[in-house]
Design brief:
The protein has two domains: about 5-140, Ubiquitin-like (UB roll) (Roll); about 155-365, 2-Layer Sandwich (Creatine Kinase, Chain A, domain 2), CATH 3.30.590.10. About 30% of the residues lie in helices and about 25% in strands. It contains ten helices and 15 strands. The chain has helices at about 20-25, 35-45, 70-80, 85-90, 140-155, 195-210, 245-265, 310-320, 325-330, 335-345; strands at about 50-55, 60-65, 85, 100-105, 115, 120-130, 160-175, 215-225, 230-240, 245, 270, 285-295, 295-300, 350-355, 360-365. α6 (about 195-210) crosses α7 (about 245-265). The longest helix has 21 residues, at about 245-265. It is globular and about 60 Å long. It starts with about 20 loop residues before the first helix and ends in a 10-residue tail after the last strand.
Length: about 375
């Protein structure tokens, strides 16, 4: 299936574009209302040949297990029951023994989307993991984030919503026609002064179609000219997602990186999410915004005197107090990759503290923004 299915011409008024998620338009109902019967009918009506179970391993990357449904009963078995997998490989280094490593992939019907990069029509479902005892697998990142979300909901009455900001660099080989920008000049730059605008807009469309809520996208400040060791131009962009419940927000970040890598590969470019590509140049951050929801309302906004509600202050305090432990789940690059960014102390946090203004603090809150912490 080609990504052209997820793009349309400006003068093409025939195909509806709302709601943004393609299968919600197809089924005529929200994702949480989808059923296995809906997916079976989709496979039959649209001649879908592949069903892919995708899930996140301990390395934070998407994994894929493909099926060719042989019959309707086989299709239902996959959609309802999932499939076994080798947990010692998917979660290497976490203590799962090779001799007792069977785990179960559990598909979530509401996560389904059509694979925008498969040449063969393919239906994708995201999966959780269960252990040999049938319970959620403790080693799974999916289990960890869902358990944290549920604990805050049941014990505190708070639904924690979040959104991710994915910053990334694109690289293309230089050519005589190039006339692109300079370092620290690319923020909100437009084509033709950036070469990655088309790819970024395609990514925004694809992500919305597969179910990732999107806020906006733009070019960023970073620009690295070609050098003797690398004949490519590197240019920085950002995609920011919309607020969603914490487990959905986490999946949104993983899917965004997956989409960007695929589009870059298709376009003969390279995509990088490394914190620092070259010493002396802007690096790529991965920021998260949080908003506690209480009784169905976001409770992060300031009152008339500018004070945050107690639940927002507790969220910020918890992030600052436990920031070191939280970093163990995300900061997996070698320390030397970040050294120059630490030395510059520029446009990035280097203090385990909270502030309303300075970027040197790991947690920031805005005077009048709906999200409590970044």
């Amino acid at each position: 299936m080609d990504t052209m299915l997820y793009t349309r011409r400006a003068d093409d008024a025939a195909e509806p574009v709302l709601p943004a998620r393609r299968l919600e338009r197809t089924f005529g109902k929200l994702a949480r209302e989808w059923s296995v019967d809906d997916l079976v009918a989709l496979v039959k009506d649209h001649s879908i040949r592949i069903v892919s179970l995708m899930h996140v391993g301990s390395d934070g990357w998407l994994k894929t297990l493909d099926f060719v449904p042989l019959s309707e009963s086989h299709l239902r078995d996959v959609l309802e029951g999932g499939e076994r997998a080798d947990g010692s490989s998917i979660f290497a280094g976490t203590g799962i023994r090779a001799g007792a490593s069977d785990i179960l992939l559990r598909p979530r019907v509401s996560s389904a989307f059509l694979d925008p990069f498969s040449k063969v029509p393919a239906l994708v479902l995201l999966c959780s993991h269960a252990g040999r005892d049938g319970r959620p697998l403790p080693e799974s990142p999916d289990t960890i984030v869902r358990a944290a979300f549920e604990r805050a909901r049941t014990e505190l009455g708070v639904e924690l919503h979040a959104l991710g900001e994915v910053e990334y660099f694109l690289a293309k080989r230089t050519s005589p026609e190039d006339f692109y920008g300079a370092d620290d000049r690319g923020y909100h730059a437009s084509s033709p002064f950036v070469f990655g605008e088309k790819l970024r807009r395609t990514a925004l469309t694809v992500l919305a179609e597969i179910g990732v809520p999107i806020k906006y996208g733009h070019s960023e400040v970073g620009y690295i000219p070609a050098s003797e060791s690398d004949d490519s131009i590197w240019e920085q962009h950002e995609i920011e997602m919309g607020l969603a419940p914490l487990p959905d927000a986490a999946e949104g970040v993983v899917l965004t990186q997956w989409v960007l890598r695929n589009l870059a590969h298709q376009g003969g470019m390279r995509a990088s999410f490394d914190p620092i590509l070259r010493k002396g140049h802007a690096g790529s951050g991965l920021h998260f915004h949080f908003s506690p929801v209480v009784n169905g309302r976001h409770s992060a906004g300031r009152d008339a005197e500018g004070a945050l509600p107690e639940v927002a202050r507790r969220l910020i305090g918890g992030l600052v107090q436990h920031g070191g432990a939280l970093m163990a789940f995300g900061n997996r690059v070698e320390a030397r990759s970040c050294g120059s960014r630490r030395a510059r102390k520029r446009r990035r946090p280097w203090r385990g503290a909270s502030s309303t203004v300075t970027r040197s603090c790991a947690c920031r809150s805005w005077p009048r923004r709906p999200t409590a912490a970044r």
